[in-house]
Write a structure and sequence with these properties.
Helix 2 packs antiparallel against helix 7, helix 2 crosses helix 8 and helix 4 packs parallel to helix 7. The radius of gyration is 22 Å and the shape is globular. Helix content is 54%, strand content 4%. It has a two-stranded antiparallel sheet. By secondary structure, it is mostly helical. The chain has 2 domains: 211 residues, no CATH class; 35 residues, no CATH class. The two termini are 41 Å apart.
């Protein structure tokens, strides 16, 4: 019986060597790590948005041109960038031209902001589904926070409009952020939201960042979880590990469930 999970949390964070854990702690570490990594991913998505906006601030400044140089040993007379293809070839583009494009086309900048937020919701939402933390009817630990992310993920993947195919499910599985550790506004998805816009109408970019940071808090601060919550997350993390090692489990496949709901 593990009475203190602090060493496990430190090991998951990489601040304590895994080989210093006892046998039971190591078993817990292995089972919980897939769930813990979703929290780490959510943090990367949130911090990536900050990095993107910081980079765009620099790019929109005309002085950014002085930071761009031509390739050493190349045959280009102007600075160029590369977008690689699968076969090893690439698109080659004029870097200075597209720096100027970022300054003169605010619509493009807004599109990029939307792409990052949409990508973050889809990435984290799919990761939660793969661990059966959403969708699976067998999972009674479908947190309202996770359900909120699921509905947002489905909405942005369907033309930025809520796609609530089973309204009755909202009676059983609430979708809100009331208990989130980080929030400025309470958001709750209800039946009447079906078909309504998601991003920048129902919820803003910074609100999505709040959700991502709240997921990180919940999944990575295991010493703050209640015993029942921890047991449930541990069980679903172990199911995910078993599927990778031994093939499909008797539980419904999250990917097939996801395709049905979409």
């Amino acid at each position: 019986m593990i009475s203190d999970h602090q060493n496990i949390e430190w090991a998951l964070l990489g601040t304590l060597a895994v080989d210093t854990l006892g046998p039971e702690e190591k078993e817990f570490y292995d089972k919980y790590r897939p769930v813990f990594e979703i929290g780490r991913m959510a943090r990367r998505m949130a911090e990536g948005y900050y990095a993107y906006t910081a980079a765009m601030t620099v790019a929109r400044d005309p002085r950014a041109n002085s930071l761009v140089t031509t390739e050493e040993g190349g045959n280009q007379t102007i600075p160029v960038g590369h977008a690689p293809r699968k076969d090893g070839s690439s698109h080659v583009y004029d870097t200075l031209h597209y720096l100027d494009y970022a300054r003169t086309n605010p619509e493009m900048v807004q599109d990029l902001e939307r792409v990052w937020i949409v990508g973050s919701l889809i990435t984290v939402g799919d990761a939660l589904a793969r661990r059966n933390l959403t969708l699976s009817e067998h999972n009674q630990n479908r947190l309202p926070l996770f359900e909120l992310v699921r509905h947002l993920r489905n909405g942005v993947a369907h033309g930025n409009a809520f796609n609530i195919k089973n309204p009755k499910s909202l009676d059983k599985h609430k979708a809100h952020n009331r208990d989130a550790c980080i929030k400025a506004t309470v958001f709750e998805v209800k039946r009447e939201h079906h078909g309504e816009p998601v991003l920048f109408e129902f919820i803003g970019a910074a609100d999505v960042i709040d959700l991502l940071q709240s997921i990180e808090c919940y999944l990575t601060r295991i010493t703050e979880l209640k015993p029942g919550e921890l047991d449930s997350l541990l069980a679903w993390g172990a199911c995910a590990s078993a599927r990778r090692a031994y093939g499909p489990s008797p539980l419904p496949s999250s990917s097939s469930a996801l395709s049905r709901r979409l």
